[in-house]
Design goal:
CATH class of the largest domain: Alpha Beta
Keywords: Carbohydrate metabolism, Glycosyltransferase, Transferase
CATH architecture of the largest domain: Alpha-Beta Barrel
Helix content: 25-40%
CATH superfamily of the largest domain: Glycosidases
Catalytic activity: Transfers a segment of a (1->4)-alpha-D-glucan to a new position in an acceptor, which may be glucose or a (1->4)-alpha-D-glucan
EC number: 2.4.1.25
Protein name: 4-alpha-glucanotransferase
Strand content: 15-25%
Shape: globular
CATH topology of the largest domain: TIM Barrel
InterPro entries: GH, Glyco_hydro_77, Glyco_trans_1, Glyco_trans_4-like_N, MalQ_N
Distance between the termini: 71 Å
Radius of gyration: 34 Å
Length: about 1100
C-alpha cells in the first residue's frame, strides 16, 4: 500500500477507534501492519475497498458523516449534579424538544438546544449540529432520552447517569485496610472435594479477620462448561455473568440431607477420594471434580425443596430474568439433553452457587471484615463460550483479546477471549456490561477488575495470528466507567482496577477521578532496579508485593519463573542478562526493606526466607494505599508458580497447584488460623498499617454514651459523643471514649456495630471506676473526678498510647469531665478540647427555676480560661461563652452537630403511640404534636401542656373534638421533674395527652414521621439535636427562640420559633398552626433538606481541621 493510501487507512482506523500506532514496552513508537488494520476494521463492520486511494477517501468521508446521519448517539453519558450537553443533528430551524424518562417512570424536561454554528449537507440534506442541555437533577441510574423534532418523536437514546464520583473507597483512604488474596480453587480442606469452595473461603476469611483483615480477594468465580472438561484458567470462563458451580460444597445444600443415608455416604466417599488425591501431592483436577460433582448435584436437585426454599428459588429465577433462561438453555444444549428438567437443573445450580457465595460474604462480614469478599472480574470469556451465544453481536467472534510484548511476556499474549464490540455495546445501552457487573457485585464488598485498561482500549488479535500481530481498539471509556460506577454505587462495593502495563498517563487520572482504586505492585515500583520510596506511591490504590501472574515471594526471590521461562524458550534475549537484572532488583528491595526497624511483637521468623517475606510486606505497607493485599501463598511460604503467562497447559500446568507450604505439602484452609507463620505475616501488615493511626480521647464522665437518651441524665450529649466517635473513626482515627463504670475494674467494650458505617472494633469504650460502686447522682460525682482521671490515665499507659505519642487530642464533654480531660491532655502533651453542652450561668438566666452550684460555675470559668479549644455547637453558643465566661474568640471553634440520616429519614414506618402497629393515629386529628426529651423543668414539657390548657380555655380545643393530640416521650430526670400527668388533669387536657418511656432511635424516627409538629419548649439549648432529627424525618419543629435552636430551626422555612417561653405564647403559636395546617406541613421538604446538610462527617472534619490549626 502506497503512502497516500496508508495515510487514509490510518485516518479511517482512527475514525473507527482503531489505533494504527502505539507505544511499545521500551517507549518506542510501533506501527500496526496494514493487513492487521484491515482485518480489525472488517471485524467492526467497515468494508475496506480494494481499489485504492479514491475509494479509501470515500470510506473516510462516510465515517466522518456517521454522526451527521443520526439525530443522537444511541447512548449518552450524564453525571448526576453536573451540567452535561448532548450533541444533536437536525435540520436548520427545526423546533426541538427533549425529555428524559427516568428509571422510576418520572419525566424530566431537558434544557434548550444551542446551535454550535456547524452545518453540513449530507445526502443532499442540510443539517446542523446543536447541543442539548441535560437536566442537572437526574438521579444516578439508567434513563431514556426522547427527542422530538417539530412535534414528532424522531430518536431515543439510553442515558447512563453516573455519580459524580464513587465514594465507596473513602473510608479506606481515612483508615487503611488490608486483606488476603487467594486462588480459591487451590485452598482446600478435609471437607473439600478436590477443589476449594465457598466454605473454604469463609474459613480463610475468618482466619485473616482474626488479625484485622478487611477483605478476602478471590480469583474469578465465573461459569464453567457443563458439557466438557472445565478449562483450568479461572480467567477463561464460559460466561462472566454466571457462576462457577465448582465453588459449591454439595453436602452443605440443605436437600443433601434428604438423600438416602447410603447415597449420602457414596457421594461423601467420592468427594473424599478427590481430596485425598490432592493431599497426596496431585494437582487440582477440575475434570475429575466435575465427574463427581455434576452427578451429585443432579441427585440433590431431584430431591425437591421445601415450600420456603422453592419460593426463594423462584424469586431468584424471576430476578435473573431472560438471561438465566438463555444460559440454562445453552447449558442444556452443551450437555446434549435439551429438556425442561435439564434447563431447570442448570437454573437451580446457579441459585445454589449464589446462595453459598452470599453465605460466605455474610460470614466474612460477621467475622469483622469491613468489605468481606472481593471478587475478581476476568477480561473476557473463552472463545467457544456461552457469552458469545448469549450476547450475540455485542462480542466480536473473529477477534481475540491479548497484550503486546512486555518485559515479562516478550512474545506477547493471546487470552483466547472475544472482545466487546464498541458500537454494538452502545446500541444496546451497555446492557451486557451492566448485567455482568451486577452479578459480580451482588454478594461482594469489593470487586477487582483484571486489566481495567480494557474499559479504555483492548489489544485485538485477529484469529489465526500471533499475539504480536494485533491493534488497540478504543472504547467509550466515559460510558464504560459510568456503568461501572452506577453498579458499584448501587451495590456499595469498592472497585479496584488492575491498571498495570503500557497506557497513556491520563488513564490513571480518569480512574482516580471516578473514585476507582488502581494497583501498585512492589516489584514494579523501581527505577532501573532501584526501589521507589513506598511513601511516594498512590493513595488511591490497592498495594501488594506480587500478583497471580508472578511467583509467590519465596519463589520470586529464588527466580523460579526465570528457570521456567528459560526451560521453555520464552526469553527473548540473553537469559544471563535477565537474571542479573532480576537479582539486582531483588537485592535493592531487600536492602530497602532491611532499613525498617524490627517489630519484636511479631516473634522470630522460622527461616531466612520468611524473614525476607516479612520485611518486604512491611516495606510495602509503608505505602499510603487505601488497601493492601497479602497473598495467601506468602503467608504459608509457598514457592511454586500458579500461572506463567504466555504458556499453554502442555508447557506448564497453570492454575492447578494446591496451596502448599515451603516443602510443597498441602496446607488446608482450616490450618491457616493456627499457623504461626501466617499469623506473623498478617500481624506484620496489620501492625504496620495501624502504627501511625492517631487516637482521639473522648471523655463523658457522668453518662454512658450508649445509654438510652431521655432516661435519667442521658440526652443529646449521649447521642453527640456516640456519633462524634463514629465519625472520627471514619476519618481514620481510633476513638477511645472514657465514661464512669459502676464496677471495681475497667470494662472495655466497643461501639455496637449498629453505629453508622463503623465496625465495632474501631471505637473503644472504657468504663473507668470512680467512687463507690453503683449509680451516683451528678451532684455526687464531682468529688470523684480526680480518681476517674487517674484510672483513665492508667488504662492509657497500660495500652502504651501515652508513651507512643499517638493521642492527637482529648475532647471533654460537660463540666464534670474537665478534670480528667485536662490531666490526660497534659500527660499526653495533646490539645485539650472541651464542649460545655450547657452553661450554668446561661441556664439560670433563661430559667429562674434552675439552680446550679457555685462549684459548677467556677469550673466552667476554669474551662473557658484553660482549654486549648472550646468546641461550640452554634454561633449563639460562641457568643454566650464570650459574654458570660469571657472566653477568647480565637480559642472557640463552631462545629455544628450532625444527624444520622440513615435512621432519621422521611422514608419508613410511621407510628403514633397508642395506635395499632400500622396506624399513624387511631383518632386522626388535624395536628399531632410530639415532645421527645428528658422530663425536667428546664426542657419545658410543662409549658406545652399548659399551652394546651390555654387553648382549651379559649375554646380552640373544645372537649369532644379531635383537632389536636399530643404525646410526651421521655422519663424523669433530676430533682426538678414536673408531674405532667397531674398537670394535664389540672389543665383539663388529660384527654389530649399521652405519655411513654423513651424509645430507641429507629422507633423515635417512626414517631417523628407520624407527628405533624415536634415541640421544643426548652428554656435554653446549646443546639437541640431533637430538632435536627425531627426535621430529617420531614417534620417541622416549633421551638423556643433560644440558644442553638435559633440555628437548628429556620424560622418560617423548617418550622417556627416562639419568642417567649410561656404557655400563652405557645398557645398563640399552636393556634396559628391549627388555623393553617397545610402551610405548616408544606415546610416538610425544606426541613428535610436543611437537616441533611448537617452531617457528623462534616463535624469530624471540622474538628480535625481546628486541631491541625493549633
Amino acid at each position: 500500500m502506497n503512502r497516500a493510501a496508508q495515510d487514509l487507512l490510518h485516518r479511517l482506523a482512527r475514525l473507527h477507534g482503531v489505533q494504527p500506532t502505539y507505544v511499545g514496552q521500551d517507549g518506542s513508537d510501533q506501527t500496526v501492519a496494514d493487513d492487521v488494520l484491515v482485518e480489525v476494521l472488517s471485524a467492526l463492520g467497515v468494508d475496506i475497498p480494494s481499489d485504492g486511494v479514491v475509494a479509501l477517501d470515500a470510506a473516510v468521508q462516510a465515517a466522518e458523516e456517521i454522526d451527521w446521519r443520526r439525530v443522537v448517539a444511541p447512548t449518552v453519558v450524564a453525571v448526576s449534579g453536573s451540567r452535561r450537553t448532548v450533541p444533536l443533528t437536525v435540520r436548520p430551524g427545526a423546533e426541538v424538544a427533549a425529555t428524559v424518562v427516568c428509571e422510576d417512570g418520572s419525566h424530566v424536561l431537558a434544557g434548550a438546544t444551542d446551535s454550535l454554528g456547524e452545518r453540513r449537507s449530507v445526502d443532499s440534506i442540510d443539517r446542523e449540529r446543536r447541543h442539548l442541555q441535560l437536566p442537572e437533577s437526574l438521579p444516578v441510574g439508567y434513563h431514556r432520552l426522547v427527542v422530538s423534532v417539530d412535534g414528532r418523536t424522531v430518536a431515543e437514546a439510553a442515558v447512563l447517569c453516573a455519580p459524580e464520583r464513587l465514594t465507596t473507597a473513602e473510608p479506606f483512604l481515612a483508615r487503611r485496610g488490608w486483606g488476603a488474596s487467594a486462588q480459591l480453587y487451590s485452598v482446600t480442606s478435609s471437607g473439600s472435594w478436590g477443589i476449594g469452595d465457598m466454605h473454604d473461603a469463609a474459613t480463610v476469611a475468618a482466619a485473616a479477620a482474626e488479625h484485622g483483615a478487611d477483605f478476602l480477594l478471590l480469583n474469578p468465580l465465573h461459569a464453567i462448561d457443563p458439557g466438557h472438561a472445565p478449562l483450568d484458567s479461572p480467567y477463561s470462563p464460559v460466561s462472566r455473568r454466571f457462576l462457577n458451580v465448582q465453588v459449591v460444597r454439595v453436602p452443605e445444600i440443605p436437600e443433601f440431607a434428604d438423600l438416602p443415608e447410603a447415597e449420602q455416604q457414596r457421594w461423601l466417599s467420592a468427594g473424599a477420594a478427590l481430596q485425598a488425591a490432592v493431599d497426596a501431592g496431585g494437582p487440582i483436577d477440575r475434570a475429575a471434580v466435575a465427574e463427581v460433582q455434576w452427578p451429585a448435584l443432579r441427585a440433590v436437585h431431584a430431591v425437591g425443596r421445601s415450600a420456603e426454599r422453592q419460593a426463594a428459588y423462584e424469586r431468584f429465577c424471576a430476578d435473573q430474568g431472560r438471561g438465566l433462561e438463555d444460559f440454562a438453555s445453552w447449558c442444556a444444549v452443551r450437555t446434549g439433553t435439551d429438556t425442561e428438567d435439564e434447563r431447570d437443573f442448570h437454573r437451580w445450580c446457579q441459585w445454589v452457587a449464589d446462595t453459598q457465595i452470599a453465605a460466605a460474604q455474610a460470614a466474612a462480614v460477621s467475622s469483622g471484615m469491613r468489605l468481606g469478599l472481593m471478587l475478581d472480574l476476568a477480561v473476557g470469556a473463552d472463545r467457544h463460550a456461552a457469552d458469545l451465544a448469549l450476547l450475540g453481536d455485542q462480542l466480536v467472534e473473529s477477534m481475540s483479546v491479548g497484550a503486546p510484548p512486555d518485559m515479562y511476556n516478550q512474545l506477547g499474549q493471546d487470552w483466547s477471549q472475544h472482545p466487546w464490540h464498541p458500537k454494538a455495546l452502545a446500541e444496546n445501552g451497555y446492557a451486557g456490561l451492566r448485567q455482568m457487573l451486577g452479578t459480580v457485585m451482588r454478594h461482594a464488598g469489593g470487586v477487582r477488575i483484571d486489566h481495567i485498561l480494557g474499559l479504555f482500549r483492548l489489544w485485538w488479535v485477529p484469529a489465526g495470528r500471533g499475539p504480536r500481530e494485533g491493534a488497540y481498539v478504543s472504547y467509550d471509556h466515559e460510558a464504560m466507567l459510568a456503568v461501572l460506577t452506577i453498579e458499584a454505587q448501587r451495590a456499595g462495593v469498592v472497585v479496584v482496577g488492575e491498571d498495570l502495563g503500557t497506557f497513556e498517563p491520563w488513564v490513571q487520572q480518569a480512574l482516580a477521578d471516578a473514585g476507582i482504586l488502581g494497583t501498585t505492585i512492589l516489584w514494579f515500583e523501581n527505577r532501573d532496579g532501584v526501589p521507589t520510596e513506598p511513601g511516594t506511591h498512590r493513595a488511591l490504590a490497592m498495594a501488594a508485593v506480587n500478583t497471580h501472574d508472578l511467583p509467590p515471594t519465596a519463589g520470586y526471590l529464588e527466580g523460579v519463573h526465570l528457570d521456567l521461562r528459560e526451560s521453555l524458550g520464552l526469553v527473548d534475549g540473553d537469559p544471563a542478562d535477565e537474571r542479573a537484572g532480576h537479582e539486582h532488583t531483588v537485592a535493592g528491595f531487600l536492602d530497602a526493606a532491611a532499613q525498617l526497624p524490627s517489630d519484636p511483637a511479631l516473634g522470630r521468623p522460622s527461616d531466612e526466607t520468611e524473614a525476607k517475606i516479612l520485611a518486604l510486606h512491611r516495606f510495602a505497607a509503608g505505602s499510603p494505599a487505601a488497601l493492601h493485599a497479602v497473598a495467601l501463598v506468602d503467608a504459608v511460604g509457598e514457592r511454586r508458580i500458579q500461572n506463567q503467562p504466555g504458556t499453554t497447559q502442555d508447557q506448564y500446568r497453570n492454575w492447578t497447584v494446591p496451596l502448599g507450604g515451603p516443602d510443597g505439602a498441602v496446607v488446608h484452609a482450616d490450618e491457616i488460623a493456627a499457623s504461626p507463620r501466617a499469623g506473623r505475616l498478617f500481624d506484620a501488615v496489620d501492625r504496620r498499617l495501624r502504627q501511625d493511626v492517631p487516637v482521639a480521647v473522648l471523655v463523658a464522665f457522668h453518662t454512658h454514651p450508649l445509654d438510652q437518651p431521655g432516661q435519667g441524665d442521658a440526652g443529646g450529649l449521649n447521642t453527640y459523643v456516640r456519633h462524634e466517635a463514629a465519625a472520627l473513626a471514619r476519618t481514620g482515627m481510633r476513638p477511645v471514649v472514657f465514661t464512669r463504670g459502676t464496677g471495681p475494674d475497667p470494662v472495655v467494650s466497643a461501639l455496637p456495630s449498629a453505629a453508622p458505617r463503623v465496625q465495632a472494633e474501631e471505637v473503644t469504650v472504657v468504663e473507668v471506676p470512680a467512687g463507690p460502686g453503683g449509680e451516683l447522682s451528678k451532684e455526687d460525682l464531682a468529688a470523684h473526678a480526680d480518681e476517674f482521671a487517674g484510672n483513665a490515665l492508667a488504662w492509657l499507659d497500660q495500652e502504651g498510647l501515652v508513651a507512643d505519642e499517638q493521642i492527637a487530642f482529648v475532647h471533654g464533654h460537660y463540666w464534670l469531665s474537665a478534670p480528667a480531660a485536662r490531666r490526660i491532655a497534659q500527660a499526653a502533651d495533646a490539645p485539650w478540647l472541651h464542649t460545655m453542652h450547657t452553661v450554668a450561668a446561661m441556664k439560670m438566666a433563661a430559667d429562674p427555676a434552675a439552680a446550679e452550684s457555685d462549684e459548677r460555675r467556677a469550673a466552667e470559668r476554669e474551662i473557658a480560661a484553660g482549654a486549648d479549644l472550646l468546641v461550640v455547637n452554634s454561633p449563639g453558643e460562641a457568643r454566650t461563652l464570650m459574654e458570660v465566661l469571657d472566653a477568647p474568640r480565637r480559642r472557640i471553634v463552631v462545629a455544628t452537630p450532625g444527624v444520622d440520616t440513615d435512621v432519621f429519614t422521611p422514608a419508613g414506618h410511621a407510628w403514633w403511640p397508642g395506635g395499632e402497629a400500622e396506624d399513624v393515629d387511631p383518632f386522626d386529628p388535624e395536628l399531632r404534636v410530639l415532645f421527645a426529651g428528658r422530663i425536667q423543668h428546664h426542657k419545658g414539657p410543662q409549658v406545652l401542656i399548659s399551652a394546651l390548657g390555654e387553648l382549651r380555655r379559649r375554646g380552640v380545643l373544645a372537649p369532644g373534638t379531635d383537632r389536636l393530640r399530643a404525646h410526651v416521650n421521655g422519663a424523669p430526670s433530676g430533682a426538678d421533674t414536673p408531674d405532667l400527668a397531674a398537670l394535664a388533669e389540672a389543665e383539663g387536657v388529660a384527654d389530649l395527652v399521652t405519655f411513654s418511656e423513651p424509645v430507641p432511635a429507629d422507633q423515635l424516627a417512626a414517631q417523628f414521621r407520624a407527628a405533624d409538629l415536634v415541640a421544643m419548649p426548652s428554656f435554653s439549648e446549646s443546639y437541640g439535636l431533637v430538632a435536627l432529627e425531627a426535621q430529617a424525618c420531614g417534620t417541622p419543629v416549633l421551638a423556643h427562640r433560644t440558644g442553638g435552636l435559633v440555628h437548628a430551626v429556620a424560622d418560617g422555612a423548617t418550622g417556627r420559633l416562639v419568642r417567649q417561653n410561656t404557655p400563652q405564647a405557645w398557645a398563640d403559636a399552636l393556634e396559628r398552626v391549627l388555623q393553617d395546617p397545610a402551610s405548616w406541613r408544606a415546610m416538610s421538604g425544606e426541613a428535610e433538606r436543611r437537616a441533611r446538610s448537617h452531617t457528623w462527617d462534616d463535624y469530624a472534619r471540622r474538628l480535625r481541621a481546628a486541631v491541625a490549626g493549633l
